[in-house]
Amino acid sequence: MLTRDRRDLVGTAALNWMKTQGWHTTYADPTQEIRVVSERLCTGTFAMGRIWHTPMTVEVQPRPVDDGHALITLPLTGSRRITLNDREHKLEAPDILVHPGQTTFELHTDSPGAHAFFEVPKILLQPWLSQAWDVRPIVGAPGYRDTIVSASMAALNSTFTADSAASASWAAGMQHLGLAMVQSSLDMSPAQYQPDLVGKARSLIRAKAHDPNYSIAKLAADLNISTTHLHRIMKSGGRSAGQLLRSQRISLARGLLREADPSAAEYQRVAEVVGFTSARVLRRSLAREDLDARLPSDFLTPSESYTQSHSPQSNRTNNDN
Description:
The chain has 321 residues and is of the alpha+beta class. It has twelve helices and twelve strands. The termini are far apart.
């Protein structure tokens, strides 16, 4: 059965209702009246709606009981940010936010704004969405997002009734549109990501390689993508993010190791400057690179052979021949 709920609340009533939804307000502009307008359509297995509210900061807390549903949020208007594990992410259209319901994060809004939301069973998302459970914005194919936004606004503005025989089919259709939209964010080919994100990844590696604590996970977080996505977009270039990070550190080290036979103290000093955790790791990385340069491709693993054959030096050699 389809149920419809609409609320237009101000002040304490708005704050109290938000608490029942797991939204605990931690800051609101004292010069502006708090107001929340919510519309919701719900069946036994699916819910959708839209919420408009005045600027505020809220802590979104886990549900007391995991009901098996995930929340998909689509920003429509306004500017907002989320903070999770001391990392802040912008959340604006056309972003999508998938919230598994058991993760706490902060939502900051700087202006009045609205977002649409959909609740779908987690089990329907799990086959492809395990990497999105860390609560971060993702971007789906525009066509899917535009379609579901238009369909959901039409449904919320409609007058069809709870006893409509078609309501179950409508709910199933909306649910599948939502799933398609989220799935599309993980189905984009590396070529679709590469022009922008690969360049950003390389720039970040060059800028932060000297930090020994800078990792692939932090690189992915800086790009607002999962580590799985990062590996996918870098794969088409023939070198992983880890290889590029190590190569950048080695390049920096070679520029600083001016002596033909550096001392242990010199290795340690350079290791600390270029991002290696110790002189031993630096020396081992340098030796490994030298060995790879000398080995014929027959002795390399498939991934190592591909990397070597696509190196700039290899390309120059092939072109000369």
